[in-house]
Each structure stands twice: as structure tokens, then as C-alpha cells.
């Protein structure tokens, strides 16, 4: 079956066999990431009566979740989603339930910290794995770009709806119930995800390694190719996280309430969603690698202008314009990472981008907290924008192919080959159409299964 069309749409993406089922299951599991942060913070605060202890426990949970993500993704690359992802998710769910049980008045802080750290270390990388499945289902680069944009916008909505769901739940149940709900969501969603025919077990990473990465310098070439998307993802994370605190400070200095800051941040999310959808729908003549630094520059310039806003209304408009570049930058970073990685390593490539975003958000929150008390807000906005612009200076390099495959024929199956010129660097075995039989049969392809945008709200938990 060919997935190409003259002007592929988002509806065409969802009409691909198994796409709706797999995507819906992944979204159910990823909704847990939108509910667990607020639920756990409320439960810890009520149990300990100390914001300091609750913050420290949350920091441990977030650190193990974010910084161990590439290693968990490596397990998925090596053993496939069914063998690696499901045990990971079930263990994560069990530990979340244990953490909910421990969150009671008088609970030792050490027990809370250890349980939270263990729970975070098992967080399943559903976002990177779903993007890997998209890359398998949609060898057409134009459709894959639309799928990534749809994925990013959907994840944005999860991090908006998750806290709202928790707010409703804690009105009728203790906060620990939200932690249990998060455990159920990740377990049920992951189980449904791995049962999809699209999540068939893949060969070990080593089977694709020799064909895609030459001995000696193959790994180095892959790391160089990943440098640009990872750097852009990290810098966008820094800038977006800085905006959260800067908007709150701006509202306070202009005599506006917290509700005003919430509306400005909502404008950031709305701009990001619109930008993400347009980025996926438009036919671009420039390659993804060429567009990526332009998105970073656009974000940086808009943030610098936002610092000059005379009032909250103008600030909201400027922040919405900045958000217009957030989802496209992150979506394109994931796309470049996917095409830079060898088959069998693409879940890890996406996980490194995801880790960079979350690490950047943590660093940005800490740095702007120090700057906002020492510098004018306009300067702070300019600094946060400069970080995004700096990412545009990172050179983009493609992954070199092995000498044995240098003469391989190039695929021309993509309907928008002129719109996505970078796709010509991928060899025919990686770009060939995927055979998708009926749901009951075993799906086969010529290559192993290839390879999470975080919320623009600082309140959201890291997106594993």
C-alpha cells in the first residue's frame, strides 16, 4: 500500500492502517504525564506539610524520568516495544500506586524520595516510540511531517487537559487518587499500544547497525548529525521555560493578577498549536535541516520583542507569535533526529531530543529565576531569546552512509520530493514503501522499525 498523495492531509495520516488505533492508545498512556505531576505534588504536600520536601521528591522523580530516558529508549530499540515497553510501563504503574500508598501523613521523607526516584526511572518512553511507529507507517516524508505535527499538537493538548482532569478529581477524592489514575492511564494505554499490529517486535539494533553505520566513524557521524536537533530542542526548552516565569513577573509588575498571566501563557500554547498545524500542512521547499535554525531565530526575535511590550495585551500578542515557532521547531527537531539515526537507533534519537527539551526547561527555570531579580524584564526576555538564536548557529550535518552503500539507488517515492530535499540522502532500503497487510497478519517491511514535545506550561511534568 502506498501512503503517498498529491497533497497529503492530517486525515490521510489517520487513514493509514493501524494509525488511529495505535495513536489513540499512545495518547491514553501519555495523558498520564499530564496528570501525574500535579497529582503527585498535591499528594506530597498534603502528606508532608512541607513544600521543600515535596519539591525535593518531585525533583528526584523528574530527574530519573528525564535523564534516564535515552537508556530506556535503548531497551526499546534493542528488544522492541512489546518486550521492553510493557514491562517498563507496568513496573512504573506499580511504583506509582506504591507511591500513592506511601503519601500519607507522617510518611518518612526517605521512603517518599526512594519510591519516587524508582517510579521515575521506569517511565516508559511512549512519545519517542510513537514517533518511531509513525516513521515506520509513513515512509513518505511529507506525511511523516504531518504526523509529527499532529503528534506534537495532541501532546500539547494532553498537558493542558491533564491538570484540568486532576482538578476535577481532587474535588471529590484525595490527591493520591490522581496518582493512581496516572498509573492506570499509563498501564492501560501502553498495553493497548503494544497490542497494535504497528508495534510488532523489531530485530535487535545490531542487525541494522552494520548496514547503516560504518565501522570506526559511524557512531561519531551519527552523533554529529544529532547535534543540531538536540541543541535546538534544548535551547527551545530554555526559552519556553523562561517565558513562564517572565510572564508571571511581568503581570506582577504591571499590577495584574495571576489570572492574567495564565491567559498570556494560554496564548503561548495557542500560538504553538496553530504553528504546529500549519508547519505540517504547508508544502515546504526548504529542507527540514534548513528550516530548523530559522524557527529558532523566529522564536528568539519574538521573545526579544515581547520584552518591549507596554502592556499585558501587547505581551500576549507577542508571546503568541513566539509560540507560533515553538511546535514547528520541536517537531522539525524530532524529524531531523529521526532521519539522522540509523535503523534500530531512532527511538533513542527521539529520546535524546526529548531529554534535551526537558533538561533545557529545568535549566531555563533556574537561570531566569536568578536573572529576573537582577536585570530589567526587557533584558531577561532578550536573554531568553538570545538562547534560541544561539541554537541556530549549531551546524547541521547529515549522517554519512557506509561506503558499501554509497552507490545505493535513491528513492523517489515521496510525493513532495521538492518540498523535502533532505530526504534524498536516505537510501532506498530506508525509504521503500512499507507493506501493510490485514490487521490479523504479521506486518513486514524492508527495514527495522525506526524511531515528546513537552507542554509550554512549566507546571507540566517532563514528557518521557
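^ Assign residues to that structure.
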Amino acid at each position: 500500500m502506498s501512503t503517498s498523495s498529491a497533497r497529503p492531509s492530517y486525515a490521510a495520516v489517520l487513514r493509514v492502517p493501524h494509525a488511529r488505533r495505535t495513536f489513540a492508545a499512545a495518547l491514553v498512556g501519555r495523558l498520564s504525564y499530564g496528570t501525574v505531576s500535579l497529582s503527585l505534588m498535591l499528594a506530597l504536600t498534603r502528606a508532608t506539610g512541607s513544600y521543600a520536601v515535596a519539591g525535593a521528591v518531585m525533583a528526584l522523580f523528574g530527574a530519573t524520568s528525564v535523564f534516564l530516558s535515552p537508556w530506556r529508549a535503548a531497551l526499546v530499540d534493542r528488544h522492541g516495544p512489546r518486550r521492553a515497553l510493557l514491562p517498563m510501563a507496568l513496573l512504573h504503574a506499580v511504583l506509582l500506586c506504591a507511591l500513592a500508598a506511601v503519601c500519607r501523613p507522617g510518611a518518612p521523607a526517605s521512603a517518599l524520595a526512594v519510591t519516587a526516584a524508582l517510579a521515575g526511572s521506569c517511565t516508559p518512553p511512549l512519545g519517542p516510540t510513537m514517533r518511531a511507529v509513525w516513521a515506520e507507517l509513513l515512509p513518505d516524508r511529507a506525511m511523516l511531517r504531518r504526523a509529527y505535527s499532529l503528534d506534537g499538537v495532541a501532546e500539547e493538548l494532553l498537558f493542558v487537559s491533564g491538570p484540568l482532569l486532576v482538578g476535577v478529581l481532587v474535588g471529590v477524592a484525595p490527591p493520591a487518587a490522581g496518582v493512581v489514575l496516572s498509573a492506570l492511564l499509563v498501564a492501560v494505554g501502553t498495553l493497548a499500544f503494544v497490542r497494535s499490529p504497528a508495534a510488532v517486535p523489531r530485530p535487535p539494533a545490531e542487525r541494522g547497525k552494520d548496514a547503516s553505520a560504518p565501522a570506526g566513524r559511524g557512531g561519531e557521524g551519527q552523533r554529529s548529525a544529532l547535534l543540531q536537533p538536540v541543541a535546538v530542542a534544548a535551547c527551545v526548552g530554555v526559552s519556553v521555560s523562561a517565558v513562564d516565569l517572565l510572564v508571571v513577573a511581568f503581570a506582577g509588575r504591571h499590577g495584574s493578577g495571576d489570572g492574567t498571566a495564565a491567559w498570556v501563557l494560554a496564548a503561548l500554547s495557542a500560538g504553538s498549536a496553530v504553528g504546529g498545524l500549519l508547519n505540517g500542512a504547508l508544502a515546504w521547499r526548504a529542507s527540514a535541516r534548513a528550516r530548523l535554525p530559522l524557527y529558532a531565530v523566529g522564536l528568539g526575535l519574538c521573545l526579544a520583542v515581547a520584552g518591549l511590550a507596554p502592556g499585558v495585551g501587547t505581551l500576549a500578542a507577542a508571546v503568541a507569535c513566539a509560540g507560533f515557532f515553538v511546535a514547528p521547531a520541536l517537531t522539525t527537531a524530532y524529524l531531523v533526529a529521526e532521519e539522522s539515526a540509523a535503523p534500530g537507533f531512532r527511538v533513542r534519537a527521539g529520546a535524546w531530543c526529548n531529554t534535551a527539551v526537558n533538561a533545557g526547561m529545568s535549566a531555563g527555570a533556574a537561570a531566569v529565576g536568578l536573572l529576573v531579580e537582577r536585570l530589567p524584564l526587557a533584558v531577561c526576555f532578550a536573554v531568553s531569546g538570545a538562547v534560541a538564536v544561539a541554537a541556530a548557529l549549531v551546524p547541521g550535518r547529515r549522517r554519512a552512509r557506509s561506503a558499501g552503500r554509497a552507490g545505493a539507488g535513491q528513492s523517489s517515492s515521496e510525493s513532495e520530493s521538492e518540498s523535502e530535499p533532505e530526504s534524498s540522502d536516505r537510501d532506498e532500503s530506508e525509504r521503500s514503501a512499507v507493506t501493510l497487510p490485514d490487521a490479523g497478519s504479521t506486518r513486514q517491511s524492508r527495514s527495522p522499525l525506526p524511531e515528546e514535545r513537552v507542554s509550554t506550561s512549566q507546571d507540566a511534568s517532563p514528557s518521557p
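The radius of gyration is 22 Å.
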